[in-house]
Amino acid sequence: MLDIKFIRNNQEKVREAIKNKNVDLDLDKLLAADERRRHLLSESEALKAEQNKRSKGPQSPVDLEELKALKEKKKLVENELACVEEDFGKLMSQVPNIPSEDTPVGPDESGNKILGQWGKIKNFDFKPKEHWELGESLDLIDSERAAKVSGARFTYLKRGLVLMEFAIIQYGLSVLTDEKLLKKIIKKSGLDIRLTPFIPILPPVFIKPDVFQKMARLEPKEERYHIPTDDLYLIGSAEHTMGSMHMDETFKEEDLPVRYVGFSTAFRREAGSYGKDMKGILRVHQFDKLEMESFCLPENSIKEQDFFVAIQEYFFQELNIPYQVVAICTGDMGGPDARQIDIEAWMPGQNRYRETHTADLMTDYQARRLGIKVKRAGGTEFVHMNDATALALSRTPIAIMENYQTKKGTIEIPKVLRKYMGGIKEIK
């Protein structure tokens, strides 16, 4: 969340963010709640001081009556304060992050801006198939049996596609833990940023509701899977439990940035996508993903996000998959995001680009809720946080399947993955 002092002193900037991010929030209502909250806090403290003063020394019957009345008044004030605090907290949680200066302003995805493209789109001498058609013909994807067992938007992955998924995981981890490769990526991207390799993490896939709320990722709840008996949620990405793992902790300045790469299964209801992408594995309830997360100094957070995007580009350049880099506009980005950059891969079977990666700069929005700070010479302050897709194990295989399909209906294996697949060159 934002600092209430910042909101008070930058009302027009906050109003603009609320408007441009299409957030349904009455800022005047929040400011009124804040003013009432501060008044009650002051009144409560004054009554407490008066009560302490009157409690000392001998008490006459009149003194005791007045003290009793004082306690009753203090109790009423504290009860009202609790109600106002609750309303204030709910309103504060709805205030969106302030978009970065270079974020395009737009109402929806139509306002997104293409920053660049890479790769040559292949001209096939046959009509390229969609990934789900290849999945059926090569017996790699079985949605029919999965629907009988688990329902719609679940699949069985089989044969070479399973080997490919684990190869992609191994490949991704090998890059993110290799200091020489990361140094090469930093140099190529022209970034002045500290080199530290990513620490591999296998995070929990369950998260407490209050922690999910502090991550600002619980809403919309209809997208989440909830286990009522334990009051736990299944995560929608590894960042949800990686980003919160340092809750209420303070880093040393010299230790930042701290970078993690987490592998987990992700669970999403896809509640708002009825009828969309029903075939194959593009939009499913359960998929695996490698996710990047970092904690850094505030002045370095944009460069940190650019580093994450450079890594995403490196992966697809090495896989030789054409893509475009897209700056997400205010109306299409999440409330907690200050800056969002997406990678969209070219999908020949669908004859269009589709989103495969997201990089989210959160500034101190999550850290303030989570209480994650850094100790510096001038005192402590909140860290800045970034999260980004390293490799999504539904959409990366799709991009490979469609771009590497052959006329005879097989799928070639990208060269960088072959050593992780026992030298297999083709799925047939």
UniProtKB/TrEMBL annotation:
Its EC number is 6.1.1.11. One of its GO terms (biological process) is seryl-tRNA aminoacylation. L-serine binds at R268, E291. Residues 44-65 are annotated as: Disordered. It is an enzyme of class 6 (ligase). ATP binds at R268, R269, E270, V284, H285, Q286, F287. GO terms for molecular function: ATP binding; serine-tRNA ligase activity. Residues 179-414 form the Aminoacyl-transfer RNA synthetases class-II family profile domain. The keyword Protein biosynthesis applies. InterPro entries: aa-tRNA-synt_IIb, aa-tRNA-synth_II, aa-tRNA-synth_II/BPL/LPL, Ser-tRNA-ligase_type_1, Ser-tRNA-synth_1_N, SerRS_1_N_sf, SerRS_core, tRNA-bd_arm. Residues 44-53 have a biased composition (Basic and acidic residues). GO terms for cellular component: cytoplasm. Keywords: Aminoacyl-tRNA synthetase, ATP-binding, Ligase, Nucleotide-binding, Protein biosynthesis. The record marks T389 as: Important for serine binding. Gene3D superfamilies: Bira Bifunctional Protein, Domain 2 (3.30.930.10), Serine-tRNA synthetase, tRNA binding domain (1.10.287.40). It comes from the Bacteria. The keyword Nucleotide-binding applies. This is Serine--tRNA ligase. It comes from Candidatus Yanofskybacteria bacterium RIFCSPLOWO2_12_FULL_43_11b.
